[in-house]
Every structure is written in structure tokens, then in C-alpha cells.
Amino acid sequence: MNIIVIGLGSMGKRRVRLIKELYKEYIVTGIDSRKDRRMEVSDLYGIETFQTLGDMEKPVDCAFVCTSPLSHVNIIKECLTRGWHVFTELNLVDDGYDENILLAKEKGCHLFLSSTFFYREEIKYIRSRVTDNKKWNYIYHIGQYLKDWHPWENYKDFFVRDQKTNGCREIMAIELPWLTGTFGKVAHVHAHSDKMTGLQIGYDDNYMIQIVHENGNKGVLIVDVVSPAAVRKLEVYSEGNYLSWSGTPDSLLEFSTEDKQLKPVALTEKAEHKTGYREFIVENAYRNEIREFFDVVLNGKEPLYGFEQDKVILRLIDSMGA
Q1: What is the pLDDT of residue 273?
Q2: pLDDT value of residue 269
Q3: Were both Cys, which of 159, 206, 271, 318 would link to 249 (CB 3.0–4.6 Å)?
């Protein structure tokens, strides 16, 4: 297979590295307008790189779109028009969704949307424990000071400064797919937000959200780009059940009614962590997600999450003013 990765920033580099590790027989090519990124990726991974799609003449089977979100719609359209299967990172806006869904069908191409948390072992376990015969509550806080997201670049030069693709919106777009997939469709939501920091951004930097699901489950979701300590803290409980998770594979705990104490949950997969990233960012989920994409392309597997579901999530986020 011939694979191109469009956008060679942090996510693009991760996708290149993992594809090469997983599928040594595939030919990977990088595309980026920045010469420094092209040179870095070429040196690190020994792949050919180009400035634009027009500079490349070799045939392509699949494209990974890893540029900033607002650029996705046109790149996805161009890739589909050329008859390529597409894996795209979070879009954060639904511009062109209907058009590209139809185009993918016309071209016989698969359109795959990243939703990495579905592939976390901890999330898989939590989802397996949340059953329909009980009502469940959850309290979930995710936050990190915006300047610390990409310490290697100014936050003003990063897409999370833009109102349309802001940091709080990105967190919600990451978390709400698996939350609704686990606890059910949302019946009612109430959000309160304001600005607490002196960050030069044109959006609220913290949200406290109450969610009621159609099946009676309830949740409190706290999202911010304020917390100086990077935090991901989840509590899930029902009658006779309690789980807590602090974002890392070794922090998933479950209450034992027999022993009356919290016990670590043994996961089936050993966590892989890449130096330079926060401790709750593990490589396994990204690796599993790439495997899933190629399973969809090669074997016709139905993806866990797609553009139709994402339209619903993005409209929900819109309703909260994020």
C-alpha cells in the first residue's frame, strides 16, 4: 500500500512512526508546506516528503489528514476526488460533512474519523462495566493550562486559539463520543462557562456541564484550559459499583464489594508511553486506531465512530456555546 500523511506536525509524526512500525511493507510519504517539518520527518523516519500533493507523482491508496482542523474539509474532498481512502484527525467543525460523505460513497472510498478514546483499554473496560439494568452517574474533570499544551510553540500560533477550534471545544470533541457511547444519547444538557485566565483567546476557558442521558444516566463534565496541573479524573458509580480513573492505565481502580476497598484493574494490554508527552497520553490507542482503519479499508469492518455520529456531537457542543 502507498500511504500519504498530510501535515507533519506532532500528530502527523506520530501517524508516520506508528504506520511504519505496524506495516513495514507499506510505503509512507509525507506532505507539509513547511520545509523544516519535511526535513525533520525525512531524517527521523527515512521517508520521502513533498511540499504539496501536486508535487507527488506516485500512486496513493490511503491518506491521513493531520493538518489543523479548519483545513480538513478541502483536503478530504481532494483526497476523495482522487479515489483515496481517508483517515482524518478531529475536524471540530462539520463544514462539508454531507458533501464528503456522499463523495466517499460515489468514489467507493472509506472515510474514517479519529476518535482515539474508543481504543483506550481503560475506556473499553469502563464501557464493559456500565450496564443498562442500572442507572449510572459520573463526574469527569479534564483540564490543562493552554500554554502547556504544545510547549514547543506559542499557543497563539496553534489552532486551539481560534474560536471555531478552541481548546475547550477540542476536549469536548474528544470526550463526548465515548461518553455518549457509554452512557447513552443526551436528553438534556446545561452548561455554565466564563473566562478565568488572562490568556489572549476569544472564548470561555472553562465549562461546568450537567448532562442527563435518555436512559436516565447523569453526568457532570468539567472542561477547562485553566488548570496548571494537567488533570483527567473520572468517577463512575451506580448501586454496588464504583470506578475511578486518573487518565493513566495504572490508575484505573474498581471498588470490591467483597473486600470493601478499591483495587487496581488489570488490563490486557501493556501501556506504551512516548517520552515528551504527558503521562496520560499512551501510544496504544493511536496504534489500535490505525489498525482499525486498515481493517475497515481491507476487510470492510464497520468503524466504531464516523461522520454521522460526529455531526450529532458537534451540534451538542454548539448548543453549549463552545
Answers
A1: 41
A2: 61
A3: 271
pLDDT for 276 equals 47
Joined grid coordinates for residue 214: 435518555
HSE-CB for 38 with a 13 A CA cutoff:
14
Beta bridge partners of 191: 209
Three cell numbers, residue 228: 496548571
Low-confidence ranges of the chain (pLDDT < 50): 273, 275-277, 280
**Residue type for 298, please?**
L
**Angle CA 312–317–319, to nearest 5:** 95
Task: Let me know: does 155 contact 161? Beta carbons within 8 Å.
Answer: yes
Q: How far is CA 107 from the centre of its chain?
A: 26
Intervals of CATH 3.30.360.10 along the chain: 117-282+306-319
Grid cell, residue 72, equals: 480538513
Backbone angles phi, psi at 262, to 5 degrees: -80, 135
DSSP-derived 3-state class of residue 141:
strand
**One CATH from 3.30.565.10, 3.60.15.10, 3.30.457.10, 3.30.360.10 for 117-282+306-319:** 3.30.360.10
pLDDT for the residue numbered 277: 44
The four Cα atoms 36, 48, 92, 82 give a dihedral, to 10 degrees, of 140
pTM (two decimals)? 0.92
The topology under which CATH files domain 2-113 is Rossmann fold (3.40.50)
